[in-house]
Design a protein that fits this description.
The chain is α/β, with parallel strands linked by helices and 163 residues long. The protein contains 5 helices and 6 strands, in the order βαββαβαβαβα. The structure holds guanosine-5'-diphosphate and magnesium ion. Guanosine-5'-diphosphate binds next to helix 1.
């Protein structure tokens, strides 16, 4: 089976880190500066036996759109459009932020299958944030750590169930 996965979420939640892990190489720029990945990047991805194309996106803050943010929004919506499935990432350390709800609404409106990943869950202090993620209305949050590779089997299971 061949399919396309778009990684969506507000800046700094760990989209590029997950992209790099799935793509198996250091491609996307990971930075502490929100929204630093400005170009949409597509690469062959793999999660155990699953093979797919993975699309990294810049994400967009819900602030009044500058032209850069406008481009990032268009790029995000194009990625969702192109994808068979969306991995929606939130930051379980931070909990739900207003921008997460905005992004979740955009994803929900497309009707695309979505897997909700509660990233940065390598520490117990993230449990509350992961539970809060239920509020996004995107189904069960899957705790993962994109940086440390935790929760990848659960992520695989959720993807197969959602497709
Ligand atoms: P993006 O803006 O959504 O693409 O986020 P990035 O992938 O650039 O990551 C933003 C920041 O979060 C970087 O400092 C990453 O190192 C960090 N980060 C990403 N994944 C994890 C994780 O699983 N745990 C922790 N603690 N930090 C992470
Ligand atoms: Mg990025």
């Amino acid at each position: 089976m061949s399919f396309k996965v778009a990684i969506i979420g507000r800046p700094n939640v760990g989209k590029s880190t997950l992209f790099n892990r799935l793509a198996g190489r250091k491609l996307a720029l990971v930075d502490d500066t929100p929204g630093v990945t400005r170009d949409r990047r597509v690469h062959a991805g793999k999660l155990y036996d699953l093979r797919f194309d993975v699309i990294d996106t810049a994400g967009l803050e819900d602030a009044a759109a500058s032209s850069l943010e406008g481009r990032m929004r268009a790029q995000t919506e194009a990625a969702i459009d192109e994808a068979d499935l969306v991995i929606f990432i939130m930051d379980a350390r931070a909990g739900i932020m207003p921008d997460d709800r905005t992004f979740a609404d955009v994803v929900r409106r497309t009707g695309k299958p979505v897997v909700l990943a509660a990233n940065k869950s390598e520490s117990r202090s993230s449990e509350g944030g992961a539970i809060e993620a239920w509020e996004l209305g995107l189904g069960e949050p899957i705790p993962i750590s994109a940086e440390h590779g935790q929760g990848m089997a659960d992520l695989r299971h959720a993807i197969v169930e959602a497709l």
